[in-house]
Design a protein that fits this description.
alpha+beta, 4 helices, 4 strands
């Protein structure tokens, strides 16, 4: 099982939509909690950042099997939740990430490719 992750980041709430932003955040926590109980994701961790002058206010790191995460990203429910988030926070984005054995594999391949190009 190849380990992967999704990095789901967001910026500040759209002014005037702060309460809705909190509602959608709670929806997301419930959604990922359900997916974890169902075995679709291994774990998830929400993180809020201190004000730092940048565009990133927080993120969720969702870990799981890379193939399951790929299927998740194509699901209607995932897309709908992310669309809701895009409407109430700035700088929303989802990016695939490498963790665990997936990270080790990535760096092993990087070393192999780097050696082939020298």
């Amino acid at each position: 099982m190849a380990m992967g992750a999704l990095f789901i980041g967001w910026g500040p709430a759209v002014r005037g939509r702060e309460q809705k932003a909190l509602e959608v955040f709670q929806e997301a926590l419930q959604y990922y909690g359900r997916l974890q109980q169902e075995g679709e994701v291994q774990s998830f961790e929400p993180v809020a950042l201190e004000p730092h002058g940048g565009d990133l206010a927080g993120f969720l790191l969702v870990k799981g099997d890379a193939d399951k995460l790929a299927r998740l990203r194509a699901s209607d429910e995932f897309i709908a939740l992310n669309t809701r988030a895009q409407l109430i926070v700035e700088n929303f984005g989802v990016s695939g990430a490498f963790v665990g054995d997936g990270l080790q594999s990535l760096f092993a391949d990087f070393g192999k490719q780097a050696a082939a190009l020298t």
